[in-house]
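Hey team,

Filing this mostly as a record. A colleague (T.K.) asked me to run one chain through the structure pipeline before their review meeting, and I want the input and output archived in the tracker in case anyone asks later how it was produced. No errors, nothing strange. Just documentation.

Input sequence:
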Amino acid sequence: MKTLTLYGFFLILAFATLGSCKEDQKKVVKTEPITFTKEGELTIYKAESDSIIVKYDIEIAESDYETQTGLMYRESMELDKGMFFIFPDVLFHSFYMKNTKIPLDLIFIDEELRIASYKENAQPMDETGLSSEVPVQYVLELNAGQRKKYALEVGDRIAFIRM
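Output structure:
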């Protein structure tokens, strides 16, 4: 009789545990979408004429956390917006698209605020390294196609202000 009661106890405990596991699986974690926060403005000028090519509202990535996450987990970004990375030193920098859901153009900018190189149409979720190929201090991430649309070239210059 004692064995049957103990067996029954374990059987009830097993069903209770399985039941609670099913409830845990039904829970949905809702997260707020990450939205753009305007922290500055950036203007790009043509190298030869010094005329304005285009202006963007920018979000600035400067801390280790900000530069490591960048535009990850964002569903979209308006065409007149971009993320501007500011690094403390002039180095070769490499980016990848892990957890990044939107295709991007990466504009690598040297310490003199001139476009030094670029990578076009970086594909979402691709973990292939995208190197600056030369030492740079800044990187501008834009929606894919912006480099071509505005014919941005190596040598074009940028200026930015913080808000």
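Quick notes for T.K.: The domain at 40-162 is CATH 2.60.120.1140 (Jelly Rolls). The chain has one domain: 40-162.
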